[in-house]
Design goal:
Helices cover 40% and strands 18% of the residues. The protein is an alpha/beta fold. A five-stranded mixed β-sheet has the order 3-2-1-4-5, with helices on both faces. A five-stranded mixed β-sheet has the order 8-7-6-9-10, with helices on both faces. Strands 11-12 form a two-stranded antiparallel sheet. Bound molecules: 5'-O-[(R)-(carboxyoxy)(hydroxy)phosphoryl]adenosine and zinc ion (ZN).
C-alpha cells in the first residue's frame, strides 16, 4: 500500500471509519484503490461474555479511534490535511458505538474542512467487492452478516431497493448461536465453517427454514432450534467447555458427530440462501451481476453455492475476499467515495441509526446535482 502520486491526487482522498459493532476500523481509499487500513478487533474482550457487551464496545472504540488514525496516516504517509472526504458508518449498529465514530468523524471533518459522508453499513458491505473488481449494475445483492440477511436490487452504486429481509435471526446470528450450543468460541461462524470442512453433509438432517412460501424473506431461528434439539439428543459430540478451537480442529474425531453436524447445518443455511436468491433472480430479470457480501460471505460453502447460482444464471459474481467480507474500514471509505462522487454528503446534523431501524437516504446534494 502506498501514497498516491501527487499528480494523481484529484482531491478525493477518502477516510472511512467503522465503529458499528465490535471492530474499530479505518482505511484510506483513493479512486477505488485502498492505500492503507487498520483494525482493532474487540472479539477477545467480548468472547469472555459470549457476545458483544454494548457499553464495553463503545468505550473500546473511544479508546482506539485516536491512536488508530495516527497509525493509519503514518502507514499511508498522508497528512491529516490531505483528507478530502470523511466517511463514517452511521448505522445500523450499536447506538453507543456508532456515536463514538460519528462524533470523531464530525470533529475531523470540521477541523480539516473535509466533506462528511454518512454511510449505511449494509450498503458498504454490498459495495465492498468493488475494491477488488469493477461492479456491474444493475445487480442482485445478497447481504449475509451477523445482524442481517437481506436481498436487494442495486440499480447503481447508490440506488438500492430492498426485496427481502430476515424476520428473526440473521444467518450470521444463527451461525454464532449454533456455535455457542456446540461450545465454540464467539463469534463462532468461522469455526463451524472449518469444522464443517472435516465432516460429511447429511442433507436431510436439518430443515431448510421458511422456503414454502412465495416471498424473499428469511427466518433462521427454527433451524437454530432444530440443531439445538439434535445436539441435546447427541451430547457425546460436545467438546469440553473452553476447548481451544485449534485443538478441536486437530482432534475433531474425538467428538462423534460434531463435524457432521457443522457440515449439515452449514449446508442447510447455504441451501436456503440459494433457494431465495434463485427466487429473487427470477423476479429481477434485468440484473447483470450477483453480489454476495457480509461476514457470512466468507463461508466456504456459501461461496461455493453462490458460484453455482451465478454460473447457472450466467451472471457475473462479485464476492469480496474474506478480509473484506467481515466489518472493515475499507468498505466504508469506498462506499463514501462512491456517494461523494454521486454528489451526496451530510452536514453535522447526521444522526446514528440503531439496529432494527432503516437507514434513511437523507443525503444533501452538492450544488448542481439533480435530486
Ligand atoms: O459482516 P460482519 O463482520 O458483521 C456484521 O455486520 O454483522 O459479520 C459477522 C458475522 C458473524 O456472525 C460471524 O460469525 C460471521 O459473520 N462469519 C462467518 C464466517 N466468518 C464470519 N459465518 C460463517 N462462516 C464464516 N467463515
Ligand atoms: Zn457488518
Amino acid at each position: 500500500m502506498s501514497r498516491p502520486a501527487d499528480n494523481d491526487r484529484r482531491h478525493e482522498l477518502c477516510l472511512g471509519i467503522e465503529t458499528s459493532c465490535d471492530e474499530t476500523a479505518m482505511a484510506l481509499v483513493h479512486h477505488g484503490r485502498l492505500l492503507a487500513e487498520v483494525i482493532a478487533s474487540q472479539a477477545d474482550v467480548h468472547a469472555l461474555f459470549g457476545g458483544v457487551v454494548p457499553e464495553i464496545a463503545s468505550r473500546e472504540h473511544y479508546r482506539m479511534l485516536g491512536p488508530l488514525l495516527d497509525t493509519l496516516l503514518g502507514q499511508a504517509h498522508v497528512a491529516p490535511g490531505d483528507i478530502d472526504v470523511v466517511a463514517v458508518a452511521r448505522g445500523p449498529g450499536l447506538l453507543g458505538s456508532l456515536l463514538t465514530g460519528l462524533c470523531f468523524a464530525k470533529g475531523l471533518a470540521l477541523g480539516l474542512n473535509a466533506t462528511l459522508v454518512g454511510v449505511d453499513h449494509l450498503h458498504a458491505h454490498l459495495l465492498a467487492p468493488g475494491l477488488e473488481q469493477e461492479l456491474l449494475f444493475p445487480a442482485l445483492g445478497l447481504l449475509v452478516s451477523g445482524g442481517h440477511t437481506h436481498l436487494y436490487v442495486l440499480e447503481d452504486a447508490v440506488t438500492l431497493r430492498l426485496l427481502g429481509r430476515t424476520l428473526d435471526d440473521a444467518a450470521g446470528e444463527a451461525f454464532d448461536k449454533v456455535a455457542r450450543t456446540l461450545r465454540l468460541p464467539y463469534p463462532g461462524g468461522r469455526y463451524i465453517d472449518e469444522l464443517g470442512q472435516l465432516g460429511r453433509v447429511m442433507p436431510e438432517l436439518f430443515p431448510r427454514p421458511y422456503i414454502d412460501n412465495q416471498n424473499l424473506d428469511f427466518s433462521f431461528s427454527g433451524l437454530k432450534t432444530a440443531v439445538a434439539t439434535y445436539v441435546n439428543a447427541h451430547p457425546a459430540m460436545l467438546p469440553p467447555p473452553g476447548c481451544a478451537p485449534q485443538t478441536l480442529l486437530q482432534e475433531a474425531d474425538r467428538y462423534p458427530g460434531l463435524a457432521d453436524t457443522c457440515a449439515s447445518f452449514n449446508y442447510a443455511v447455504a441451501d436456503t440462501l440459494r433457494i431465495k436468491t434463485e427466487r429473487a433472480l427470477r423476479q429481477a430479470r434485468h440484473v447483470r451481476s450477483l453480489i454476495v457480501a457480509g461476514g457470512v460471505a466468507a463461508n466456504r460453502r456459501v461461496r461455493e453455492v453462490m458460484t453455482g447460482v451465478a454460473r447457472e444464471a450466467s451472471l457475473t459474481l462479485s464476492m469480496p475476499s474474506p478480509r473484506f467480507c467481515t466489518d472493515n474500514g475499507a468498505m466504508i471509505a469506498w462506499a463514501g467515495e462512491c456517494l461523494f462522487r454521486a454528489g451526496l454528503h451530510h452536514d453535522c446534523a447526521l444522526d446514528a441509526i440503531p439496529r432494527g431501524q432503516t437507514v434513511p437516504f437523507d443525503y444533501l446534494r452538492a450544488a448542481g446535482q439533480a435530486s
